[in-house]
């Protein structure tokens, strides 16, 4: 996935979480990502994937009516 494709999927708070994961502040994490840092890219992809999976799982459970 390209940086542009990843940027399209980022939401408010993703760079803040990326910064926390990397142990740096959010603007520094965002700049590392835009500069092509592989660790930042992998972490942000994981953040996006986990968020999407959580949303999908929760929506599926709420449709059935069983929230754990």
Can you put this structure into words, describing what you see?
There is one protein chain. The protein contains 4 helices and no strands. It has 68 residues and is mainly α. Helix 2 (14-22) crosses helix 3 (26-34).
Quick structural summary:
The protein has 68 residues and is mainly alpha-helical. It is built from four helices and no strands. The longest helix is centred in the C-terminal third of the chain and has 27 residues, at 38-64.
Number of strands: 0
Instruction: Please work out how many helical segments DSSP would assign.
Output: 4
Q: Which percent range describes the beta-strand content?
A: under 5%
Segments where pLDDT lies below 50 for 5+ residues? none
For the record, the count of structural domains works out to 1
H/E element order: HHHH
What attributes characterize this protein structure?
single chain, 68 residues, mainly alpha, 4 helices, 76% helix
Q: What is the fold's blueprint, element by element?
A:
Blueprint: H1 3-9, H2 14-22, H3 26-34, H4 38-64
């Amino acid at each position: 996935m390209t940086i542009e494709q990843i940027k399209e999927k980022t939401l408010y708070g993703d760079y803040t979480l990326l910064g926390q994961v990397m142990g740096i502040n959010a603007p520094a994490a965002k700049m590392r990502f835009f500069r092509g840092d592989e660790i930042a890219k992998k972490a942000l992809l994981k953040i996006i994937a986990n968020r999407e999976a959580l949303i999908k799982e929760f929506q599926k459970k709420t449709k059935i009516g069983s929230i754990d």
